[in-house]
Specification:
121 residues; alpha+beta; Nuclear Transport Factor 2, Chain: A; 3 helices; 7 strands
Length: 121
């Protein structure tokens, strides 16, 4: 079960813009991520490389924590807002809820819930 201090350190790293590093540093080797109800992606190395590929398409990503994380045992729920600034121009806003299952001080599974229409246009 993660402590509030652990969650604060994790969210601080994400808020700093180090999204790929946060996956590397805070996820278990066999971690999974799932977007809404899509098939989960598995394995920390894959998750880091996919996150870095997304970041490489951006000039920057602004990250906001919209509410304090909720912690209940091994379950942590975080509400985020991301503003993506693609290298191709423009910007996109996305709000999501991240539902995490922690194993000790590492994230073992995470599901993101968001409206995909936010990324259109």
């Amino acid at each position: 079960m993660p402590s509030r201090e652990t969650i604060d350190r994790f969210t601080a790293q994400v808020l700093s813009g180090d999204h790929a590093g946060a996956i590397r540093d805070w996820y278990t080797e066999d971690a999974s991520m799932q977007e809404n109800q899509a098939e989960p992606r598995r394995g920390r190395d894959l998750l880091v490389s996919q996150e870095q590929a997304t970041l490489d398409r951006m000039t920057r990503v602004e990250t906001e924590l919209l509410a304090p994380p909720l912690i209940d045992g091994d379950t942590v729920v975080i509400r985020w807002r991301f503003t993506f600034h693609p290298k191709s121009g423009g910007r996109r806003h996305m709000e999501e809820v991240a539902w995490q299952t922690w194993r000790g001080d590492r994230i073992a599974a995470e599901t993101f819930f968001y409206d995909p229409a936010q990324m259109k246009g």
